Amino acid sequence: MPELPEVETIVRGLRQPLVGRRITVVRLGKTDFMDDPAALERDVPGCRIEEVTRHGKFIVMRLSPRNENSAVEGLLVHLGMTGHLSVTRAEEPVVNHTHAFFALDNGRELRYTDSRRFGRMGVFEKAALEQVLAPLGHDPLEVTRSDFAKRLAGRRSRIKAMLLDQRVLRGVGNIYADESLWRARIHPARLASSFTPQQVKALHRAIADVLKQAILWRGSSISNFRDADGEPGEYQLRHRAYGREGRPCFRCKVKIRRIIVAGRSSFFCPRCQRAPRNSGIQTKRKSTARKS
DNA sequence: CGTTGAACCTGTTTGC
DNA sequence: TGCAAACAGGTTCAAC
């Protein structure tokens, strides 16, 4: 569910109800996806939420220390595949798989729900928080074309794998990788280092355009994504490749195909997005021409 | 270095 | 209808 546009949508919806509020009580359910559940219960009550921001797919709630002995800097949340945050009245019925409750000083409650528990949650001091975020690559909405080109040329991997690598670009996931590649007319199994300057330019632009559009439409609701107010996004109605196996390409009418690249379903148009010569399908030949 | 497959865990959809 | 398999927005790690 949650890639950059979905996380951005959630963050925007959380700012109004959360910024300026003080957290009074923390209650936890299952904690196997949390960094240090005891620290959450011990250190977060009394803190005030100063700011809610997004770094790639991470949500950071910057906290004011509750006293001079506290070094708490922020609450970090990653939604994984099925994570969700919402702010409700404290007496609202609790939906299944709700694993964290943060009572607020106005009688409302921030709740975290995550059926698969692939998410992540923790409270961190400044240095530790920076350590978690440091490996993340460029913001895909801000990276310059030349920086983007450098990253692509720097390594010899398939473009799909690169787009999913959060150390290269932070925030792109399976849906928006496929949507961007469709727009740029690039096959997901192509080696990024083989691109022409025109292809680099097209992909750089496609990524930013797709993400911006998706944010405007408040994200993609494939099965259960909901914004902070419980409303679904609408960008799934505008997908051109993802999830469209067997349906006609919007440009050329050829049927969209699904293959596995980088271990993930990858949807593409076999006509608009030409396959690389020597990739994707088996063809394991003993190569003797390996130089080093 | 880079790729693949499995693992983490639960729910939903698809196929026979 | 019923049950099993396949699949799912993410990340990480071992093995090759």
Write the layout of secondary structure elements.
Elements: H1 4-18, E1 23-28, H2 37-43, E2 48-55, E3 58-64, E4 72-78, E5 83-89, E6 98-104, E7 108-114, E8 120-125, H3 126-133, H4 145-154, H5 159-164, H6 174-184, H7 197-216, E9 257-261, E10 264-268
Antiparallel strand pairs: 1-6, 2-3, 3-4, 4-8, 5-7, 6-7, 9-10
Helix pairs in contact: 1-7, 4-7, 6-7
The protein binds a DNA duplex (16 and 16 nucleotides) through helix 6.
Summary keywords:
292 residues; alpha+beta; 4-stranded antiparallel beta sheet; 10 strands; 26% helix; disordered C terminus; DNA-binding
Walk me through what this model shows:
By secondary structure, the chain is of the alpha+beta class. It has helices at 4-18, 37-43, 126-133, 145-154, 159-164, 174-184, 197-216, and strands spanning 23-28, 48-55, 58-64, 72-78, 83-89, 98-104, 108-114, 120-125, 257-261, 264-268. It has a 4-stranded antiparallel β-sheet, covered by helices on one side. It is elongated and about 60 Å long. The model is unreliable at 280-292 (pLDDT under 50). The structure holds a DNA duplex (16 and 16 nucleotides).
Brief write-up:
The chain is an alpha+beta fold and 292 residues long. It contains seven helices and ten strands. The longest helix is centred in the last third of the chain and has 20 residues.
Major pleated sheet: 4 strands, antiparallel
Structural class: alpha+beta
Number of strands: 10
What is the CA–CA distance across the termini?
42 Å
Helix content: 25-40%
Give the assembly state of these chains: single chain
- The helix tally amounts to 7
Q: DSSP strand (E) fraction?
A: 15-25%
Strand order of the largest sheet: 1-6-7-5
Radius of gyration over C-alpha positions, nearest whole angstrom: 21 Å
